[in-house]
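Run folding on both entries below.
>entry_1
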Amino acid sequence: MQFHLNRKVVLTAAIAMASQVSYVQAAGYGINEQSASYLGTGFAGRASNAIDASISATNPAGISFLKGEQASVGVDVILEGGSFEGEREGSPAPTGNTKTDDFQQTSFVPFGYYVIPVDEKLTVGLAGYAPYGIHLDYEDGWAGEWLGGKTLVEVMNLQGTVSYKFRDDVSVGFGLIASHVKGELTSKPFGAVNTKMDGDDTILAWNVGAIWNVTEATTVGASYHSKLDFNLSGDLTKSGAQTGTEKVELNLVMPEKVMFSATHRLDDQWTVMADATWTRWSRFEEFNVVNSSGASVNYVPMNWKDTWALSLGTSYQLDENWLLRAGYMFDQAPVNNDNRTVRAPDANRNWFTFGANLKTSENMNIDFAYAYVKLQDGKISESKAVGPAGGVDPSYGTVVGEYKSSSHIFGVQLNYLF
């Protein structure tokens, strides 16, 4: 069966899908799920292996090595999970539920990419994807509701990309990004009083990359992604025993990162890939929501550390229609038992991934992917910080316990060559 797709329909669908994002936590607040094809190899080779238009998000130079005008549209689905078992020690007396499950919500991460060559050297593209985000929603009455209920941070990038081939084996690329963030924080600090803080912001950012085909079989790539320095403005709303609304602001930095990738084709069937990504999470020092007078109304010290994500992957050309993939990634967390919080119950994680690509026609192929992600168990002992000056509020008590979590991720992606 032959398929024909209209360019405007594909492009509109890609942008629309990428703007309807529900997020799940990756290491830190990062999101890797920007492609089903790279998910299949544990994201190994994502900055060197130009297999489809989704390389726009990881290395803008990669679009120079794609064949013709093409689009990639897809979605990754992360199933709910996560469990906490513990209690609140000290005042106030009620401990809350000692066991809380599935606070990480089932989330959809759509993405869309469109690439068109201008001539033999210049290629341009448009992309929509999610680089950062988190969606936690604890059940009412859980042991840490005084510190946090819902934590939602949504970041969506709309990127224009240009790539130039200096030689047949070398290209560089640049992406100009409009990045939009929306945040929502809820908690129940004093009995029957509920607080909700929300806000948003839009800024410009950029990324840059290069790819070199060292030999016919070996390709290396590197890319740099600028930090996202947001200043969210919105409202703090109280409901229940107390009511009222006031204007608040939150400075939020999503950090820069650097990717290094290599791809090597062993023969006509086997290809191996590797990737190392460094993220400067030490920029993320705090959640500090302030009101119009500059006073802190909600403060959470983060004090994260820089991280590395290391991955290895492979693909096997089974026949003319089926390509099989597998990969592994170690994803280092920016937190440990000393600075874990209810708004970032993160831990080092191991990714085990599998994928396949089905060629359905000369113009179209479909990627399928699955990942099992296991987080290391992590302990928490968090008290309510009173503000940047230091100290804690003993009236909140201390949440102590242990987090356990794993995730199942499914991805699908349609690639079409015009």
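>entry_2
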Amino acid sequence: MELLSATLQRVKPSPTIAVTTKAQELKAAGRDVIGLGAGEPDFDTPQNIKDAAVAAIAAGKTKYTAVDGIAELKQAICAKFERDNGLSYKPAQVSVSGGGKQVLYNALMATLNPGDEVVIPAPYWVSYPDMVLLAGGEPVIAEASLQTGFKLTADQLEAAITPKTKWFIFNSPSNPTGAGYSRDEMKELTDVLMRHPHVWVMTDDMYEHLAYDDFEFCTPAQVEPRLYDRTLTVNGVSKAYAMTGWRIGYAAGPEDLIKAMRKVQSQSTSNPCSISQWAAVEALNGPQDYIGPNNEMFVRRRNMVVKALNAIDGISCPVPEGAFYVYPSIAGLIGKTTPNGVKITDDETFATALLEDVGVAVVFGAAFGLSPNFRVSYATSDEALEEACARITSFCNGLS
């Protein structure tokens, strides 16, 4: 008898986690490896947030909570959406989960039927298509290119929508590219969605506060208020507040959808960690003054990495508007050979050779649905980035 389900056979493990794990294994074996695969800030969680967690433990706030979040956190989330996005929600319209990934998964599990389609722009975060498959739906990939700054055009979105489309998943600033949609670019997409009232919008705003230069973040229901009743606006505390391990994500949307998501969570994990919830209350309600200085460091690192990569013959790297990733093209390196005789046939062989030859761990572009590229996370120290860029340069210059 076959033990594993047919559904599970449709999906693959997360490539970003696999790369990070491989880099850690090589380090443990004594190899000098620089990991540029992980999508998390290298800053520590701010002290006021840690203090709030310690105070919650001391106060005995260590019991089960409401399935999808304590009242205080839901109120803080409502205040955040009003303050930052001009969106008005009631606590009954808010769901809190063990990370943004669970929020997305709950929503897909609660809404998808076999044959339902979900439009996902590529490059995409690795988990979107596989979560759709796990939930019984069919991912429809709409490919954005280097020429459009890795942003989906209105025509491409229009072409991807069919009568079977249930959701459009949207992420700006983007993982893996850092591409951010301006208000005008967003309006072009929301105009398309207004012509298709059967399509719901799942917007992943996790990198909202990591926006650089003159780029101004906006979210679909903010740009087109008529989409409010069919938009799930997803966010979390992981990136802006350096709280990846605390595992708190949240979303706001129509009350019936939130209720359905609560039902899924009630039969899977129940409530998110109580201590993390109280820490998240402080993150959202407390001082926000460290976000600016952190972003200045990210901009400096971004500029350094983009300059170094663009100086390499065969690599083209656009300047991202936000997040902490760059997504350079290696089209000019395909077909070349390493000194060890390995032919670079695609971005996966490139990333594998880069790790084995010079000890730099990156994630290959095929994992994100667009090749030939690779993703660099510059959320690490300046020294590590400088050394990693020097190694990448040396590796590429050694190809023939």
